[in-house]
Design brief:
heterodimer; A: alpha/beta; FAD/NAD(P)-binding domain; Guanine Nucleotide Dissociation Inhibitor, domain 1; nine-stranded mixed β-sheet; five-stranded parallel β-sheet; 18 helices; B: alpha/beta; Rossmann fold; 8 helices
């Protein structure tokens, strides 16, 4: 694998987030020679998902000081003639801030020296295996983290000063192994019980040890770390949304599987309750009275074709959606459901936006299931990789861990000619697509970014217990005071393949006004209770318990206009990082718009031939037509023949 | 005519260094031909091979080649997901490709396991044995030992060119997968949504609506 990259391409794409990956697939599909690069060791950029240890490594990477010496500028001079100039790219990603980690799960004494992720151990690390190598030193968080636990109120930025040297151990596995041993002794730093509560700990464990058989400890989480697929962004697919349509149209959907979101929840008067949204739900609901059921159905039926009845809302054009709902003879209960759980809007949203959102929700109902949303099995982070696979299948070349120094621009034409990578290699192309976070401060000096506040929690129970413990729920928590932002909560069960058995993975998202913890902690405290506290209580806890929590702010570069960037050549196209919205419509729209700008006459992501249609039966030989390449334009039909790999009935004897 | 009672569908991965003959093996096995100047396979995810295993059992094999990413070793998770077995291929005339075998195996085991947590069955293929320069293979005992140490279920000297041992290697792998499968039954997820199957929109794309 010592081979160097080819140097001539049609399109070079920097960043493997969703819009870049869709573009890579679309370009490769039309026969363009595509090079798709990411400076990170994993796919997806800020759209990525990680195993538990992978996430800890990600945290560590961002908490490292920025003093990593870049021995860059490997003789850029020789490569750039007089007639060209360079536009430098950013050396270090700055999209993630204010990372804070809290561990509430207790530390099992007897399993302490084997805290490692099963399967993470590598005998022979190499470039092919390096993503897993970074998982090796999973168990060790910087010791400075202890400060979180001893001083809960400590401001976030104190935590950034970690000056401990941390090797990610990409090549030196022995070092990582030793580190792991070290951590065995230091693991108590992860637990909230550490320090002043030490004495209580043992007695507490004795009391609850027998009662709670399935007590989940930090080492369980680490050991089962590969069961986790923790997304950096929390999104769902609208079942009639742009992304699901694109997946189907391009047949990239054959790489993905989804689960229905099973419940829409509401948080009202300190209680979590389920929102009836389908017709059947409404009529089966025990929470609603007969009168309410009729009112709700009437209103929802109106929303489905609200455009046909302008007289119903014309007079209220000046009102907000919430004020409008008050005029519709709906009980406060129903108003809350419609505003926060169905339209999922802010109270201040306009009446038209509210009606539009309600209509979209209703239209998505029933396409695949009882709620309008789908969640990708193994996490949202799968989706960019599905498009990358499609790109690769059509000849796209992939290269992760590949840093780019600069664009090379021809002075006369003002067009970008090439990039120069960290080895000093020049790679020529016609078009360049780059994700916003790679652009330098100079390029972005006029850009004003928004921020997204995120929390990731591992909990031991659902926020709303039900007959089945395998529920996927979405909940919008309205702001406590007017003017603040609503917080979107998604709760994932283990059958989504994003968390270990007997746990739930909870994502919180809102647009930032302060640090993520400041924005989200109050909601976390309303819904959950820290693990340690309830252990001292004898009675059964009513709230789910927090085992582990992560807070961070992510930069939101959506909605930045192209003209805000300084001095970019016209053949350099910019994709944004994840937006804070629930769906993926922004990324899909952006990819399609850029594709049509670059290749106006080409179709965007047409379906490829289905490989299942190319069948060569083992018993009778079929000669291949000589001279054809392997694109066999078989007719794709939707017959039984195109059954998919995992359809369950295929595994069962008939 | 009696219909077969059982039908199995397995995804198999074919991995190994550049130029060891992965695509040639797949083409020989599935398409029954060999070309010494093949072009990189474009636009096809996998090749399908149907085996009439025994009178009651049909086995459909999806053989997944590694696409354009292979040179730099950056496979997507999509490639590994749900695979039931793998061939790891090396070229007997190039010792470096054998040295990479252990890397590929540990990479595979770190990224893929059966739903019950066990590693998938992997068969090692010593390809290009027709070229007679097989320095390593002369010592069969050593190879057996190597397979045992690294968790391969077996190894075969193969030649895509001369069609040697490819069917045998495949039968060996399928045999191990079938033996493993009985304890996997319960792990199949019942309520997974496959948009391209459940949606009536599938047929609405321009290319296929006519047929």
């Amino acid at each position: 694998m010592a081979e160097s990259l080819p140097t001539e391409f049609d399109v070079v794409i920097i960043g493997t987030g969703l819009p870049e990956s869709i573009l890579a697939a679309a370009c490769s599909r039309t026969g363009q020679r595509v090079l798709h690069i990411d400076s990170r060791s994993y796919y997806g950029g800020n759209w990525a998902s990680f195993s538990f240890s992978g996430l800890l490594s990600w945290v560590k990477e961002y908490q490292q000081d920025s003093d990593i010496e870049e021995e860059s500028t490997v003789s850029r001079q020789g490569l750039i003639p007089e007639t060209e100039e360079a536009i430098a790219l950013r050396k270090k990603d700055e999209t993630i801030q204010h990372i804070e980690v809290f561990c509430y799960a207790s530390q099992d004494q007897d399993t302490e020296d084997n805290v490692e992720e099963i399967g993470a151990l590598q005998r022979n690390p190499s470039s092919v295996a390096s993503t897993t190598i970074t998982e090796l030193d999973s168990a060790c968080l910087p010791e400075e983290r202890q400060s979180y636990f001893t001083d809960y109120e400590m401001p976030a930025n104190h935590t950034q000063k970690s000056d401990k040297e941390i090797s990610l151990g990409i090549t030196d596995v022995e070092e990582s192994l030793e580190k792991e041993k070290d951590c065995g002794d230091n693991t108590c730093i992860h637990t909230i019980l550490g320090g002043h509560k030490d004495e209580d700990k043992h007695t507490v464990e004795d009391n609850t040890g027998q009662a709670k058989k399935n007590r989940i400890t930090f080492s369980h989480i680490v050991k089962e770390g590969r069961r986790f697929n923790i997304d950096l962004v929390s999104k769902l697919l609208y079942s009639q949304g742009l992304l699901i349509d694109l997946l189907i149209k391009s047949n990239v959907s054959r790489y993905a599987e989804f689960k229905n979101v099973t419940r829409i929840l509401a948080f009202r008067e300190g209680k979590v309750e389920q929102v009836p949204c389908s017709r059947a739900d409404v009529f089966n609901s025990k929470e609603l009275t007969m009168v309410e059921k009729r009112m709700l159905m009437k209103f929802l039926t109106f929303c489905l074709d609200y455009e046909q009845h302008p007289d119903e809302y014309q007079g209220f054009r000046q009102c907000s959606f919430s004020e409008y709902l008050k005029t519709k003879k709906l009980t406060p209960n129903l108003q809350h459901f419609i505003l926060h759980s169905i339209a999922m809007t802010e109270s201040s949203c306009t009446i038209i936006d509210g009606l539009k959102a309600t209509k979209k929700f209703l239209q998505c109902l029933g396409r695949f299931g009882n709620t309008p949303f789908l969640f990708p099995v193994y996490g949202q982070g799968e989706i960019p990789q599905c498009f990358c696979r499609m790109c690769a299948v059509f000849g796209g070349i992939y290269c992760l861990r590949h840093k780019i120094q600069c664009f090379v621009v021809d002075k006369e034409s003002g067009r970008c000619k090439a990039i120069i990578d960290h080895f000093g290699q020049r790679i020529n192309a016609k078009y360049f697509i780059v994700e916003d976070s790679y652009l330098s401060e100079e390029t972005c000096s006029n850009v004003h970014y928004k921020q997204i506040s995120r929390a990731v929690l591992i909990t031991d129970q659902s926020v709303l217990k039900a007959d089945s413990d395998q529920q996927i729920s979405i909940l919008l928590v309205p702001p406590a005071e007017p003017g603040a932002c609503a917080v979107r909560v998604t709760e994932l069960c283990s059958s989504t393949m994003t968390c270990m058995k007997d746990t739930y993975l909870v994502h919180l998202t809102c647009s930032s006004s302060k640090t993520a913890r400041e924005d989200l902690e109050s909601v976390v405290n309303k819904l959950f209770t820290p693990y340690a506290e309830t252990e001292t209580n004898k009675e059964e806890p009513t709230k789910p318990r927090l085992l582990w929590a992560l807070y961070f702010n992510m930069r939101d570069s959506s909605g930045i206009s192209r003209s805000s960037y300084n001095g970019l050549p016209s053949n350099v196209y910019v994709c944004s990082g994840p937006d804070g919205g629930l769906g993926n419509e922004h990324a899909v729209k952006q990819a399609e718009t850029l594709f049509q700008e670059i290749f106006p006459s080409e179709e965007f992501c047409p379906p490829p031939p289905n490989p299942e249609d190319i069948i060569f039966d083992g018993d009778d030989k079929q000669p291949e037509v000589p001279g054809t390449n392997n694109i066999i334009m078989a007719t794709i039909d939707s017959s039984e023949e195109s059954k998919n790999l995992e359809s369950p009935e295929k595994h069962l004897p008939h | 005519m009696q219909a077969p009672h059982k039908e199995h569908l397995y995804k198999l991965l074919v991995i190994g260094d550049l130029g060891v003959g992965k695509t040639s093996i797949i083409k020989r096995y599935v398409h029954q031909n060999f070309s010494s100047h093949y072009r990189a396979t474009i636009g096809v995810d996998f090749a399908l091979k149907v085996l009439h295993w025994d009178p009651e059992t049909v086995v459909r094999l999806q053989l997944w080649d590694i696409a354009g990413q292979e040179r730099f070793g950056n496979m997507t998770r999509v490639y590994y997901r749900e695979a039931m077995g793998a061939f790891i291929v090396f070229d007997v005339t190039r010792p470096a490709t054998f040295e990479a075998v252990a890397k590929w195996k540990s990479d595979l085991d770190s990224k893929l396991s059966l739903p019950n947590g066990k590693p998938v069955s992997v068969v090692l293929l010593a390809n290009k044995c027709d070229q007679g320069k097989d320095v390593l293979i002369n010592n069969g005992l050593k190879m057996d030992q190597f397979c045992k140490e690294h968790g391969f279920v077996g190894w075969f000297e193969t030649s895509a060119k001369e069609n040697i041992n490819i069917d045998e290697a495949s039968r060996c792998l399928v045999k191990h997968i079938l033996a493993n499968e009985c304890d996997l039954m319960e792990s199949i997820e019942p309520d997974v949504v496959k948009p391209h199957l459940t949606s009536s929109k599938v047929v609405s794309c321009s290319g296929c609506a006519k047929s």
